[in-house]
Amino acid sequence: MTSRPIKIAPSILSADFSRLGDEVKAIDQAGADYIHIDVMDGHFVPNISFGPVVISSIREVTAKPFDVHLMIAPVDPYIQAFAKAGADIITVHAEAGPHLHRTLQAIRAEGKKAGVVINPATPVSALELVIDYVDLLLIMSVNPGFGGQSFIPESLTKLRQAKALIGGRDIDLEIDGGVTADNAGEIARAGANVFVAGSSVYHGNDPATYAARIAAIRNAAQTVTA
Ligand SMILES: O=C(CO)[C@@H](O)[C@H](O)COP(=O)(O)O
Ligand SMILES: [Fe+2]
């Protein structure tokens, strides 16, 4: 359970890319707290999405914070480009390189919030020695690379462990993968306060439904944390 404000971060990976700017505006107007942006390189993960050029083009359509999830390796050479493109939070995988401590410091040196993320097979203990260098801790609840997968239940245990590791620090605890209004309650109870949701918000790509879908996830999470 968390006392931090609940934030909903729709993932634009499930947006209709042929009208991406409008899809970003639509989730902004529908109440998104963050815009979650999944960057994939076809190497660290078996899919390719988009990079800094696309991010800077959608930066013009919303003032909401950009929560940029980098699924790329190596990551260090690209931190500055994503900072310049308009990222507010830059989240890197602990598995993506040997110099996580340095990478997190490089993100903060750009004036951005430093996020760290672990895959389903990586234990929370991998983050013990970098916890004082992060602003956001993300638990992947699917194997990264694709939207629309099912939530891995063991992620709830990892959330509780991550919550204990965070202790009283000012760090957001985010969950990503298979989040729906049906499981948001148990996810909140396990300690997450930032909810990434791709297919469960963008399902059908009908902007008229986005506000209700975001509200349903938020309400399910807040009912538990209230
Ligand atoms: O990082 C990723 C996938 O690698 C995610 O952010 C997905 O985009 C979430 O999609 P859903 O599981 O919510 O459909
Ligand atoms: Fe993501």
Write the layout of secondary structure elements.
Blueprint: E1 7-10, H1 20-29, E2 35-40, H2 52-59, E3 66-71, H3 79-85, E4 89-93, H4 100-109, E5 113-118, E6 136-140, H5 155-166, E7 172-176, H6 184-189, E8 194-197, H7 199-202, H8 210-225
Parallel strand pairs: 1-8, 2-3, 3-4, 4-5, 5-6, 6-7, 7-8
This protein binds 5-O-phosphono-D-xylulose (5SP) and fe (ii) ion (FE2).
The site of fe (ii) ion has 6 residues, from strand 2.
Q: Could you describe the 3D structure shown?
A:
With 226 residues, the chain is α/β, with parallel strands linked by helices. It is 32% helix and 18% strand. It has a single domain (7-225), classed as Aldolase class I (TIM Barrel). The chain contains eight helices and eight strands; from the N terminus they run βαβαβαβαββαβαβαα. Helix 5 (155-166) links the parallel strand 6 and strand 7 (172-176). The model has no long low-confidence stretch (mean pLDDT 97). Bound molecules: 5-O-phosphono-D-xylulose and fe (ii) ion. Fe (ii) ion (FE2) is lined by residues 11, 36, 38, 69, 176, 196. Pathway: Carbohydrate degradation.
